[in-house]
Write a structure and sequence with these properties.
Layout lengths: L2 H8 L2 E2 L5 E7 L3 E2 L12 E2 L2 E8 L3 E7 L2 E9 L2 E7 L3 E7 L7 E2 L1 E4 L4 E6 L5 E9 L7 E3 L2 H7 L4 H6 L3
Length: 165
């Protein structure tokens, strides 16, 4: 199974943060705006999900969304998720099948947490799924400004420079 085969078979398209994706599910029902936190400017679907493919040499650039995001491992190698949070600092999570080295089949990225992803060195690709609740909307997506992120987390300059576009 090659990266190109997966992209073609699943009909994936380029994602603005890097990698490839395809929307798989979006609930037919919505959460009303008055039931959501003030972070949201309109109603949102209960839940959405995508396929997400990341190839070696590519990365998902630092970004954040206003909802919790649950990553699911499907195939290929492992993904390193780099999380930056003003309260928790830096966290490194491994999504994949390396259970003996702190890997996990699911990783949660809390709402409003800056995060980036890359395929573990030596792996060719990783196919994952991302489930978001309340559902994903591009209005809730913020790609990191490298200079602002460097000011907020100066101790992680090398990582930020490596994983910002």
């Amino acid at each position: 199974m090659t990266t190109n085969h997966i992209i073609q078979h699943l009909e994936l398209k380029p994602h603005p943060e890097g990698g490839f994706y395809k929307e798989i599910y979006k609930s037919g029902d919505f959460v009303d705006e008055n039931c959501l936190s003030e972070n949201f400017n309109a109603k949102r679907r209960f839940c959405t999900s995508i396929y997400y493919l990341l190839s070696a040499g590519d990365f998902s650039a630092f970004h954040r969304i206003k909802s919790d995001e649950l990553w699911h491992y499907y195939a290929g190698g492992n993904i390193i998720l780099h999380l930056l949070d003003t309260e928790k600092g830096y966290q490194k999570k491994i999504l994949g099948n390396q259970l003996d080295t702190n890997g996990s089949f699911q990783v949660i990225v809390p709402a409003n947490t800056w995060f980036a992803a890359e395929v573990l060195e030596g792996d060719l690709f990783s196919l994952a799924g991302c489930t978001v609740s309340p559902g994903f909307d591009f209005d809730d997506f913020e790609l990191a400004d490298k200079n602002k992120l460097l000011q907020e987390f100066p101790g992680y300059a090398d990582l930020i420079k490596q994983l910002c576009r």
